[in-house]
Each structure stands twice: as C-alpha cells, then as structure tokens.
C-alpha cells in the first residue's frame, strides 16, 4: 500500500481528499512511476523527470491523458494545496479496472539522509540481484521487498547491485560512480536506470572537463578505487565511505568534492530560475 501524505492528491484532472483511502485508484497490470523531489516548493529538474516519465509510459504503450504542462500544473497545484515545502511527489500511471488510463499524483513519505552522511560518507554493501528493464521505472514489489530486507540485514544505507558477470550495475535506488586517477567511471547507460541526478553529474563533468567513462565496473575494482558516490532524487549526491569491509577514501578526493559543490550550486540556480513556477 502506498504511503500517502498530505490532505489532497490528483487522479487524472481531479483533485481529491486523502481522508477516504477507499477512493484511491486501483490499477490492473503493470504500472510505471516517477519520483520528483520538491524543495523550497520547487519541483527540482521537473522537465527532465517528465521526459523520463513519458518515456516509461511509451514503454507500456500507455500515454497519459495529459501533456507535460498539464502534469506540471497539477504538481504545483498539489504542492500549494498541501502547503509542501520539501517532500517527494510521486506519479503512478496505469490502467484502471475498467481499462481506463489513470494518472495518480500524490505526496509520499519522504525520508532524506542526515547531514552526517554527506560529511562522512555512507556505508554500502554488494547485493547479487538484477533489475528487469533497468531503463524503465516499473513498479516491482518483489524487488523492493528483497532490497529492503537485505539493507536491514547488512545495516547499510545503500546496496550496490551485482550482475551475473560480477559487475556492479547501480545502487538499489541510485546510480553509482567511481573515481580512478583523474577520471570518473560509471556503468553503461543500457545497464541502469537513467537517473536525473546522474544526468546532472554528466553535465558537471562536461563543464569541468572531467573525463567520464561508461564502462562495466568489475567488483574487483573496489579495492583500488580512489573515491565513489551514488546519485538519486531523494539523496542528491552521497559520498561512499565503505563498500562492505573495504574503506573508500572518498572524503579526501578532490573530484568528488568538486562534483558535490557544483551540484549544490546547480540546485540553487534551478530554484532561483523557477521560483515563479509555483505562483
């Protein structure tokens, strides 16, 4: 069951009250979703998220009965109605019990990493599991259950997924990057969910002329990497201090610190430039 927060949500073009959970939409078959972080009342990188959402919808051959502008307007109406300053908004698209297209937009439970994780880095662990159709945000209860259980058992913030070739593909809810020498390395686009923050990391590297290579990442790389971090909507960019028992010297790596600083500035500029969107 989805954890709905706030007094209101949208189903298609209808703004509804959350007090009656029996009125929540019921989907038949596969659904796709998108998660967008609202910060200071601004939906961060909304255009990029909606582009990916429509790409996921095309995968299911289920176009939303709304334009990107329509959805953006609903998100900001919902933000205002719920008086949200910082929280994640979720979009779920699928077919209803009568075969009709349903687009559900609501604020969901949002827990962000504490400041210490950005200052000291996070502990991670390897997990042998592969996501089907990694480029698409499909709702998969079995995957989510397995990941939550493994994270709890290993007592880590994030899991790095390992495929049958003993290569790291991505985090369970993030993309992952490694530093060797003066360059950044990340798994190929075809093997991962194309995260929005991942896209911003590429933009920062292009601007800074930091070489970035999309290559398979063998597990054996761990003991020689000079820095590592994960990126994701709910986490922004989180430095990794350890993978399993292997300590990673991320916090003293200049490349990682530059990317962290530049990303924070990118978020600030986006909010400054889109402050009128919520009015």
From TrEMBL:
SUPFAM superfamilies on file: D-aminoacid aminotransferase-like PLP-dependent enzymes
Name of a matching Pfam family: Aminotran_4
The family database entries (Gene3D superfamilies) matched by this protein are listed as: 3.30.470.10, D-amino Acid Aminotransferase, subunit A, domain 2
InterPro entries documented for this protein? Aminotrans_IV (IPR001544), Aminotrans_IV_CS (IPR018300), Aminotransferase-like (IPR036038), BCAT-like_C (IPR043132), BCAT-like_N (IPR043131), Class-IV_PLP-Dep_Aminotrnsfr (IPR050571)
- GO MF terms, alphabetically ordered: transaminase activity
**Keyword Transferase: yes or no?**
yes
Query: Is this entry keyworded Transferase?
Result: yes
Keyword vocabulary terms for this entry: Aminotransferase, Pyridoxal phosphate, Transferase
Report the record's Gene Ontology biological process terms. carboxylic acid biosynthetic process
GO (cellular component) term, any one: cytosol
Q: Which cofactor does it need?
A: pyridoxal 5'-phosphate
What is this protein's name?
A: Aminotransferases class-iv signature
